[in-house]
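Task 17 of the worksheet. Students: predict the tertiary structure of the chain below and write it out as structure tokens. Keep your answer in the requested format; marks are given for formatting as well as content.
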Amino acid sequence: MTASIEDIVGPTNLWNAVRFVQQDKRDELICDPLKDVAYLEQSALADRLADLATRIRSGSYEPRRSMIVEVGKANFTTRPMSHIHLEDWIVAQAILNVIAETLDAEIPTGSSYAMRLNPDRMKKTSSKFFKAWYRDWPRFRRKIRDAITEDSPCVVVTDISGYFEHIDLNLLSDMVLELGVPRNIVSLIFAQLEQWTWRHQYSASRSRGLLQGNDISSMYANFYLKEVDKRFEELGLRYHRYVDDIVIHTSNLREARLALGELARFVRQLGLSLNSSKTRILATTAQVEAHYNFALEDELEGHLKEMGRTGETKQTKAARRGLRKRIEKSSNSYLMKRLITAYARARDDSFCDAGFRMLGTGPEYSDKLCQYFRSVDSEGCVSSLVAFLEDGTQNIFPAQEQEVMECLLRMSMKSDSWRQKLSDLGWRELNDLTAHPYSRSLACLLVYRYGDMTAIGRLVDRYLGKEESHPLPKKHLALAATRLVDDQRSERVIDKLKAEVDPDLTELGLLMEQLKEPSPKKIANMLEKADLHVDHYEKPRKCKVFRLGTRDLMILNLCRSSPERQKVREKADRWLSKVECPTSKRLLEEVRART
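Model answer:
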């Protein structure tokens, strides 16, 4: 291929990279509320990208270390997920913009379904870089189902043990070089990948393992198995793969065993091994149905479509109860997640008790369960979620703790007593310096959202003191100043931010200072980034629930100190007419009163 560093650092390519990264970040595990608003502030972004291009050309660009969050799996083991700095993400995406078509062309289209390029990615500003996983995963399952015939009744099901963590970066580098990607571009790619490699404290980077947590690394992981895809195409076997989930169809048991042996040998050449605990040979139709539960899946998907047509009715509620019994008996995690989605759309509180038990026994369901608890949005749910956080025998995974705290930040909190309890919970977590930095950041936000002015003042004083050293919680402590009506303390916060070593904190301080000056365009750009959260439910039918997110509250409060504060008031007035959540109303009325 013909590509150069100039293709990567060209202004159009970098701006496209920013657009795609902003879309990918919506699904990021660490949901920093302001999501790099200071870095992406429009009036300064062009200069930042120009400086980034200069550093890449000169070879002085260096990627930062990633932040690791341990995510609980079904058997209480963990998967390390990484959070990378926005600038590094933009560089990685800019590289992918240039080389992705070359990489994607090497992966057979008829057998590999994950992380495929969206052909319309450049046609609309809202288009994502990759095809949507929520369409490609069901397509993968349909292809498996369609391939089970009288001629191919046997199915081999397997995945690769610790796949991302065991990818050989040197081998991956050679694969990319073989496609004609220039060596200086490959060196830039792997300078990033090796810096992000999961490791303890400050030990040297390893040459094995890809980070998990964004689409870019998933693309390289999908590319790494391209030779396996080609090998099984040569063998003439029906074969389907979604990243490292692999399914092979054969005509008989002997052929299935031979195919499994061939796969094991081939992945071993890549430094990998099959996961024996998840490897199955399904030799009969009954075994296939017991494993996949296709008939039950059809009923569940039909139930979701029926709710979409009719809303929640007595009939749909009764049907869901019957489905629940059968899905619980099947122990199929995919169907259980879809069932939780059905309960969330119906806002059906009859699953609450089972959901809280599952939160403690099935950490892999945390994301779906928190969506469900947010849909029910009762004080009983809040009480149980707080009890989970305070139970050290259940709350053991940082990522799960963070999902629960994020859930609490998006609930209504109808009473002052519960708002006070959540503020107190935030302080307890904030004072635990052994907690993950992102957990402490969320603790700051609990106080910021639910605390009174005394609590907000304490957050600001904590930032101005020396209790916190990590940049992420320090950022959220400093942002507490936006809720204060105290110009003197706000100025002290801004001065300290501008003197910080961490560039993220410095950028935030400069932004807060600039927003105090007359700048209609800057305020307009900032307010465009804020909007209410909207959740869609089927009860009442086709219901929309609007909530004020913590990010949007922070943007309003950041702009409140501007001479153009009337625009903030106008936006707060519009939102007040839409929200029903008591906490959202209270916070918007506070913003309105101070503008």
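Marker's comment: The first strand starts at residue 67 and ends at 72. Strands lie at 67-72, 78-83, 154-159, 238-242, 245-250, 280-282, 533-537, 543-547.
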